[in-house]
Amino acid sequence: xxxxxxLRVAKLIKDSKRVVVLTxxxxxxxxxxxxxxxxxxxxxxFDPNKVGTITSFLSNPEDWWKMAQEIAPILFNAKPNPAHYxxxxxxxxxxxxxxxxxxxxxxxxxxxxxxxxxxxxNVRSASCIQCKKKYGIEYxxxxxxxxxxxxxxxxxxxxxxxxxxxxxxMLPEEAISEAYRLAQECDLLIVVGSSLVVxxxxxxxxxxxxxxxxxxxxNEEKTGxxxxxxxxxxxxxxxxxxxxxxxxxxx
Length: 251
Ligand code: APR
Description:
single chain; alpha/beta; Rossmann fold; six-stranded parallel beta sheet; elongated
């Protein structure tokens, strides 16, 4: 049985021409990866000022690696959940043009989504922050495994860092420009599992709204954009999104 709100949201999606999805850590919680600001969020256990900024990483990498070593096994063993698969199916149905994700876990791609823009980077590779030489993540894991918390560049001896964006760092230029373009060109933005508090990504819903796009938020908690959204469905992404796909097939 698909409830009234789900039906209305499915109709809005069906009637929209350019649907873009913005996801945050909440969509991966049902895959076992903690979010940051929810009740069991990472920032409830680690201080983001100590382990989330580029300056703290460079001055005291051990703290960052302590958190990374706790999260890494969860991250690398995580599997997509029904929410990721639902979005991949909506892309196949021609109802999702692209996913802009703040997540670094690669689960959208593992679920089959093709157009995924990773605005906060990913854990598949690492780079020297001085000469930008690229490394596979294996290099970093093996160096840290030897107790070398600051893997060094074999070219210039610079610091090698996993390709995830830390506070105080610029976002990957191409990814964030593409995200801005999509937010301004879509006629429907669906936000899933994000508290929408971290800029510049948190500016995307405002950009879409300013261009007259409609917005749907699927999130367990209220967000700063909830009052402007056309719909806010409170619930677990892994339960809500499959119902929306089911409704899309019926209407
Ligand atoms: N279904 C739907 N929503 C959920 C679920 C779920 N199963 N689990 C948690 N949520 C909601 C939480 O209530 C919260 O509002 O997802 C949201 C996650 O918000 P954050 O933890 O702030 O994650 P996010 O918005 O992605 O953070 C943005 O902050 O620390 C940085 O770089 C980090 O990319 C991250 C950025």
